[in-house]
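Hey, quick one: can you model this chain's 3D structure?
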Amino acid sequence: MASNLERFGRLTGQPRVSIVVLNYNGSGWLPKCFTTIKNQTIADQIETILVDNCSTDDSLAVTRQLLADFPMACVVKNSSNLGFCEGNNTGARVAQGRFLLFLNNDTWLEPDCIEILLNETEKAGAVASTPYVLNYPDNSFQDFGFYGFDLFGLPSSSMPATATREIFIPGGCSYLIRRDVFNAVGEFDAEFFIYSDDSDLSWRVWIAGHRIVGVFPAKVHHRGAAGVNPSGGIQTVEFRTTDRKRFLTNRNSLFTLLYNCQHLLLLALIPLVFLLLAESLVGSVLLKRWSFVRASFWEPLKDCWRRRDLIAARRRRVAAFRQRSDFWMLRFFRLRFNRWGEIVRIFKLGMPRVDAK
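Sure thing. Here's the predicted structure for all 357 residues.
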């Protein structure tokens, strides 16, 4: 899993923030993303890092051209596709900023986004945050992270806001975190590969005694799922998933609770298992193939059992820095159902297309 590092510009002192942009065959999204980073009001305080997960398109050539005159920038070239988690970790390990901003390549920033995000985060006494996320082509609301967790222990989706507020989980498309805290709580978990990684990291941040906020005045625009759901260009025109995505999402949701819950909140595993079973059965009937039950329900459970030693090790790691109990974490319990966003997408875009791969 070797990586190569290529630097641009001249680093003069510690940057205030390092923006880590993860990329896999996303060259079409990079020009707008990088241009809006370069046009930030505090561009001279930003280190820009492109992490390429072994793309086969012209992403590296496009990046080199775009970053050539940035004040502080580098490219990390991974020799294989390490996924979202370890891919971002390789960028964080070479970063020199006080803060890290993990930014998806299918995003663009309003000019004062980073300055406001940093100032408001520090003013709120928080170590992690997210800007207010709008849709890519316009100013319509997309999300504001997650406000809590529901009966199943799953992140409870956000609603439009009008001010900076405390949140449970920043969305993975634009996740700001202080670098020393990111390292102290153990980075993104490489075992996740992708999906639910923002949830797991945020549980650890709160457990370690820190605070997370959503910064309303800082605005980022996000396409969403551009890699797995490319149809429509800058607009999402279909609801699409795969057996592999359902496996990873469901397994990682189980991992998150198994890693981070102390005792009481482990009870959320019971309704979660029944929810995943019900969803897999309904999905199999609609798709007319029983293999979906295996991919989305049985395989996630089997993988958790196979990795029981890893789960025990992760629980010991969390216990070593735990400052807050399950009882304290109950303040984030919400009645708002995690799947509400998916229900809205079904009404808007129709039943999801599920590819068996």
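One thing worth noting: The chain has a mean pLDDT of 91.
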